[in-house]
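Ticket #4471: complex job returned nothing on first submit. Input attached below:
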Amino acid sequence: MSVVTITRDAEIAVVTVNNPPVNALSQSLRQGLWDAAEALDADPEVRAVVLICDGRTFIAGADVAEFGKPPVPPHLPDLVGRIEAAEKPWVAAIHGSALGGGFEIALGCRFRLAQPDASVGLPEVTLGIIPGASGTVRTPRLVGMQAAVDLVTTGKPVRAAAAQSLGLIDAVVTGDLRDEAIAFARAALRRPLPQPVSQRPVDAPDAAFWAAAEAKVAKAARGAAAPLRALASLRNAAEKPFEEAMAFERQCFLDLRGTPEAAALRAVFFAERAAPRPAHLKDLTVLPLRQVGVVGGGTMGAGIAAALRDAGLPVVLIERDAAAVARGLANLRAIFEGAVTRGRLSEAQAAERMAGVIASTDYAALADADLVIEAVFEEISVKRAVFDALGRVCRPDAILATNTSYLDPQLIAEGVPYPGRFIGLHFFSPANVMKLLEIVPLPGTAPATLATSFHLARLLKKVPVEAGICEGFIGNRILKRYRAAAEALVRQGVAIAEIDAAMRGYGFAMGPFEAQDLGGLDIAYLQREGARAAGQEVPETLGDVLVRAGRKGQKTAGGWYDYAANDRKPRPSPAVTALLGPLVAAPREMPREAVAEHLVQEMAAEGRALLQEGIARSPSDIDLVEIHGYGFPRRRGGPMFATAAARR
Ligand code: 3HC
Ligand code: NAI
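Support reply: We reran it on our side without changes. The output follows.
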């Protein structure tokens, strides 16, 4: 079937795009639209054109899969220009998402209509590129420069109502989209037409505007190239004639498309899309998830319960006594109240989230749960007691999951009846925010349990990665290696603050030592002490020295750094220098790039070990873990991508 079909409703032509899955602008679609514009201009009976899409969305953008290949005509900027220059006005009828090149096509149309749940945007910077078909040149002509800067440099899509108030779209329509668009086109023909967007005047902000915008964009970009190039292109659009600005934009787009940064972001884009639906689970049955139990309402339990409620799932929260039930509910309420304060939820939505939670000390409340996630203290005896109780009250087909970070799930599962339903679901803190979910099947886990865990991840909009069993699974094992390698550099005389600065320079929000100060050094310390008590050989770390001296991080006013009261700024610590002095070599200069490269290589080496051991299934899974669980800079593609790219 053709990707573009033309039908008629009297004098209105309807051009329908059908290029599954997301109507991306492949060469055949570009050609199809070009031919439609030619044919309709030549048809004297046609007076206006509605552009509408079949399937789940309007045109979702350029075909990202074509980015590695030479561009083939008709080029997208020409197509947008062709539609704009059509003798009959085109009306874009948007459902789903009009993103990137899809929105640029809509910018070429004389009018844009959208359904209330549709969104529009220019997400190119998230792919390491800038809009390549007039997004930076037409958008400011449509909505002014400030709105264009926000839209293009953040890449964040805007929902229909907000898009209408900005002027990105002309109307939000609730009825049948095709009928509404035809009626709109017909009505529009009775009024003078607005100017094509390219012919509208553009704001000319002063130098102070650009200086402020540049400072803001540079800060948010944290070293990424595309947002600043997008800003330069927007400025060009304000200061140069249309054609010149278009040529500049196209050149920036083509330059960026071939950069390692864009290649990395594309790889992450496709990995994220593949992750929720692994090929090896394709044909497996998924069990229904109608009600979910959470045992433990502490940091993780409350976060997990919040994530479940955000996805609309009813939750039963179990705690050990009445006071703990009250604390668990208070933790949950605090999460939703925080969302209200930040404008993410209305009061009514927060109340509705809470209303969907039953909290109890009585495990019998879990009799109907389809899945129960345990998030109690990290202690084998406590966890075993919980699963003992779950084994007695839950349905035999209810999935039972542990959120343990370091314990062996096989030991936790011992004695659980119907062990095929047992699995590890390792959420990250805060569990309602962090996208990563490590899914840890046991040797006896049933395929349906595993498949349903991925289904859960899809419901929660998480990025799921399957991990095998080892201490720390994928992420915490790499973290351990990373921290050990960073400590080794300190022992060799590299300054703590230099190592943190190197990793920030690489793109992390924080370096390894500042991050430990924020999270607390004591958790890993206690874990090492536990292993030592159990007779394991665990060498003394520099972190152990600090914790023994009472330096547990920001919460004790000092860890790797000192902190002034009510100030999170890390200050190099003479006390730490004195404490570690006997263990550290003479100060040594190491270029920051070399520090970062070394530490990323160490992460990748651990990643390769995980692959060899069968703990991780693919390099891209490891990259997703690092990006979504540990703040690895997305634009580097993850440690496996970054080090493989360096070898290419
Ligand atoms: N190119 C190629 N393939 C794409 C694609 C694109 N732009 N967008 C999505 N896909 C593919 C996905 O890889 C996935 O493939 P799979 O089924 O084989 O795994 C499939 O389409 C479905 O994607 P999702 O799972 O993401 O579907 P959803 O329904 O959850 O989301 C969406 C739909 C909101 C449109 C989302 O896919 C999305 O955000 N896509 C990216 C949009 C984008 O970034 N567009 C800008 C591209 S750059 C550009 O246009 C440059 C221009 O200025 C010149
Ligand atoms: P927490 O101490 O904040 O919460 C534990 C909760 O479990 C407490 O509210 C406690 O009252 C409750 N509890 C204890 N015994 C119980 C029982 N028998 N029945 C019902 N409730 C009981 O601990 P946190 O941080 O939430 O950790 C929970 C689990 O999640 C641990 O296994 C931990 O390793 C894991 N985890 C923690 C992460 C974190 O960053 N805090 C990240 C990922 C996993």
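The mean pLDDT is 96. Closing as resolved unless it happens again.
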